[in-house]
Amino acid sequence: MAGRISGNEVVIDNPSEAIRNYNKGYFGRMVGETLHLHLIEASFLVEIGRVEVERDGKTVTLNELMDMGIKVHPNFEISYLVFRDLRQRGYVVRIPQDGEDGFDLYPRGGAPHSHSPTYLVKAISERSPFLILRISDWVNSIGKRKLMLGIADEEGDLTYYSVKFFRMRGKMKEEESYEGNITVMGDRSMVWDEELSKKLQENFIGRTFEENVVQLSLMETAYLVEKGATAMKGNKKLSLKSFIKYAKKIQPDIERRLYAYKDLRSSGLIPKTGFKFGSHFRVYREHIGEGHAPYLVHVIPENYKSTWTEISRAVRLANSVRKQMIFAIAGSGIDYIRIKRMTP
Amino acid sequence: MAGRISGNEVVIDNPSEAIRNYNKGYFGRMVGETLHLHLIEASFLVEIGRVEVERDGKTVTLNELMDMGIKVHPNFEISYLVFRDLRQRGYVVRIPQDGEDGFDLYPRGGAPHSHSPTYLVKAISERSPFLILRISDWVNSIGKRKLMLGIADEEGDLTYYSVKFFRMRGKMKEEESYEGNITVMGDRSMVWDEELSKKLQENFIGRTFEENVVQLSLMETAYLVEKGATAMKGNKKLSLKSFIKYAKKIQPDIERRLYAYKDLRSSGLIPKTGFKFGSHFRVYREHIGEGHAPYLVHVIPENYKSTWTEISRAVRLANSVRKQMIFAIAGSGIDYIRIKRMTP
Asked: What are the structural domains of chain A?
């Protein structure tokens, strides 16, 4: 079978060959009796030996075809790796007609004429920055499809992630108010007040220092002051505002974290520090005594920028301790986005 | 037993009480027949109920003693948590006489008059920045002791790390030179040359794309060009210099990573991308076929700054996949530092 280069596409003119290639795997798009193949599709068909491509009567090699693709399409080499891998796994993968960046992936055994695509797949280089704003824009804009990311590392190995908005719910009833003194000590606080200590222990706030003495993080202190407790620094009582001002010098992002903490608490969840897992919170759904915290929550601003290497590390670590990795995007509201490793 | 506040210390004047407190756990230092306790030591002895402290005839509470400590000593609250934890684990822990920041930790059952301290322990808040320069200065300056870091998270929970210079050795013989064409394609390269492909596969460089075709990272490409291979971009041959210039736009730290890659290769090791583990390299000691890569190597500049949260994540992930986490500090030379979680 032979195709020919036409502009930035490969075209198969022979009607029976065109139809056969379209029907066997749904490559390209039929225009009348001619099949138009994107350079990614053409490269794949050349690689597996199903199509030969000619220009001016001479065979075009895979090398030349890919070189052409790289000149014409941004991100061609990464897109090709992802397209190829998904096709090799037996999926129908198509380039969206509306020119949207990415691939439509159909359910196993599904075809374009009978099924809707389940995923929109974005092909991403490990080296491109991780911008949370771009990710959430994608999740927002893909309609009924789900978002899958295929990340190619520098050796061309692929890791897939599914990304979606996520809502967590817990069973813990939130206390309306707290009373008693909290002693601010450097970058944390202590509760020497026996009654308050007990109430905090019942609510899984802070950490037992010794019997009836509880140690608090600055953020927990702020949460409690907002709910009526009194923060003392030496003999001085600090208002919420002056406490936050003090705490911000030590922990500049305290307000953002507090915002997420309050939101999680109000959903019946129990957030505790996730430091050992490299995240802001590990989150329990009910009594901590029952053991497992199913979520790691990392609180980030809307303009958060990181590297895929960092994200890969975070998600992989969450995985290895049987937790889900959730990013809490704190802006005017809070959105939770789950990033999860998957095998297509 | 009673001590009294004297300046920024607690002093026990009664000779028999002084000697008993010194001998039972080696707290403080004897000056004549008087025991001088650091506020950290005094707080601990008050907390466990062994000493009572007075000022002007009135008892000083633990709360007040710690408040005093915070005013006088930077990092007091963190230091206290670490000191307390190590003491509770049954170790003799002492404040170095030379005023060095940190604690001397003696081997289990060891005492200052008969043993040398095995570790210098630094108490660090999760919130303080991770500066590699500071860490390597510490390792360089502590003499025969080893370095242990006690990191307190915001809830006061402690994680310990041992830190040391580290040398890796492998069994792979490095090839002196390579010949053949490499086709540069966007942010990676392809080797369509059959002979070169085979040689690369034997040396575990690149990744098999299909039979006799190998895919290379930009850094591997640079390594091979330096060793004689030819980089082609379209029909243009790129010199090493112009290739690096091109690659730097895509991967700004390529020279630093290449530097570490060459150093590892010259030590008989096989570095491959560590992207899936959130690090620059996973490193094998011999044939990849044999399986396990025992090291993750992350290449950083001398002025590298990060957060303890990130480091905690990296070390924990390495741990969970049975690898050691090594930081390669690339400056005028290369130093490798291993950070490993430990239980004292």
From this structure: 1-73 (3.40.1170.20)
